[in-house]
Predict the 3D structure of the following.
Amino acid sequence: MDDDMVSVAEPILGEAERDNIEAVLDSGRFLQGPFVEEFERKWAELVGVDHAIAVTNGTVAIQLALNAIGIEPGDEVIVPSLTFGSTATAVVHQAGIPVFADIDRDLYTIDHTDLERCLTDRTKAIVPVHMYGHPAEMDEIIAFADTHDLRVIEDAAQAHGAKYKGDVVGSIGDAGCFSFYATKNITTGEGGVITTDDPHLAERLRTLRNHGMSGRDKHVTLGYNYRMSELNGAIGVAQVEKLPEFNKKRREISEYLFEELADIEWLNAATVREYVDHAYFWAPFEVATDQLGLRGKEVWNELRNRGIETRHRYITPLYNQPVFTEHRGFNSDFPWSTNPRPHNYDLHLDNVEEVVGDVIGLPNHPNLMPEEVDRVINAVRTFDTKHS
Ligand SMILES: Cc1ncc(COP(=O)(O)O)c(C=O)c1O
């Protein structure tokens, strides 16, 4: 990237990560050893659950969680329509069928008032996403799930350490899934974790990630090699200690940015409920296109021209993605063929359509220097005078 560009995200690694990596290289033990175990222990403690199961990434974390709760071919799983694709591709990996719900107009998380529309006799689970670091409305989602005997898998990939009414996300549903991809609040390079309080689920997850093996020789179920390597675990052990400080900085920068930009009429900072601790994976705002006369993509581009990298996602609703609309899963119509309902995804959900393409994330990572934060503010301001 251009040296002079203010970056929107960067992994922040230090001596401790380096020392741990060196210890792995010295030990010659690369596979799910003491560092992975320590990372699991620390993550379970941070989330406040009994079990954390480390895996290779956040996508397979969701797939395995759906497997462990018993999703069968053709079972329906309700997911939000505007999120990273793997919330829903993970459902298809488990031969389930994603059913797309609208998003909350203020929070961009799944709209709990749309769950009823999505419900059928094949619905088995809901996967709420804690979008951009803001927790979904879990009380309403859990109440709906309880009423209809559904399981809840939290997609907490973007919400390390976020809290909903005092509970850390990943501890609220049946299981929580995290990603430690390089741009996330903390990283392990690539990596994921599943959290749960259920010992049976935890045991099944440990078997599934390790070739479905029990002991050294028995394949008791169809499993996978989704184990986390020691190199990734070694980075994770060092990173997890830094999460509270990283999140504090993300919050401070995000709040400062939006305080300073509060008078910009075309920039609507995303809502933050008073009962959450936001993880600020993003510092999201919505472009008021009627005020500015520009769409999100153009704003993203203009900011780039001013030396500011921003995030501009998600710009295609999942119900418009070919993998789902054209049933491109298993080189056949599977798993849709296992369910009698027509799942043609010919949807046009109000809040999704209103928001899509116009949400932008400002740089807010802990490595930003104060002058870089001010450059972000100034860039948005020049923009304002030029276009409004
Ligand atoms: C909401 C969401 N779910 C799932 C994932 C998948 O995680 P991974 O990239 O580690 O597979 C990501 C991000 O990468 C994400 O943002």
Notes: Residues 230-260 form the longest helix (31 residues). DSSP finds 13 helices and 15 strands in the chain. The chain has a mean pLDDT of 96. The domain at 15-239 is CATH 3.40.640.10 (Aspartate Aminotransferase; domain 2).
